[in-house]
Design goal:
By secondary structure, the protein is an alpha+beta fold. The chain is built from three helices and six strands, in the order H-E-E-E-H-E-H-E-E. Helices cover 24% and strands 33% of the residues. Strand 1 and strand 2 form a beta hairpin. The radius of gyration is 14 Å and the shape is globular.
């Protein structure tokens, strides 16, 4: 992904020990017209604000460095925690989609970014 697009997923680590907590980053799927953000953290790190901090940093890079004006995100219908986090980041639920006809539906979230001049 990095070689082709200049971005991808990053490991998120603790400051003190460098232990991996999860991943966060931007990806470009062939099945979506927009870049999407993704994150996944080990359960023991949930609810501490780490995903929000990592995702906000990734979105800042997407806006300020990559000059993206729209980023999307996907969640499973039952993933309330990730939906809540996306809402805090400014994403709006847009609609249900299927990436492929044989896959289950996902919730599509959209964030319009404002570029700094």
């Amino acid at each position: 992904m990095y070689a082709r697009m200049g971005f991808g997923s990053l490991a998120v680590e603790t400051k003190d020990r460098g232990a991996t907590m999860g991943i966060c980053g931007l990806i470009k799927r062939d099945t979506l017209p927009d870049v999407d953000i993704g994150f996944a953290f080990l359960a023991r790190f949930w609810g501490r604000g780490y995903a929000h901090e990592a995702a906000a940093g990734v979105l800042a890079q997407g806006t300020n460095v990559l000059r993206l004006t729209r980023v999307v995100a996907l969640t499973t219908p039952g993933n309330v925690r990730s939906g809540r986090l996306l809402g805090k980041l400014g994403f709006q639920f847009e609609r249900m989609i299927r990436l492929k006809p044989d896959q289950p539906e996902s919730r599509l979230w959209v964030l319009t970014l404002r570029l700094k001049t």
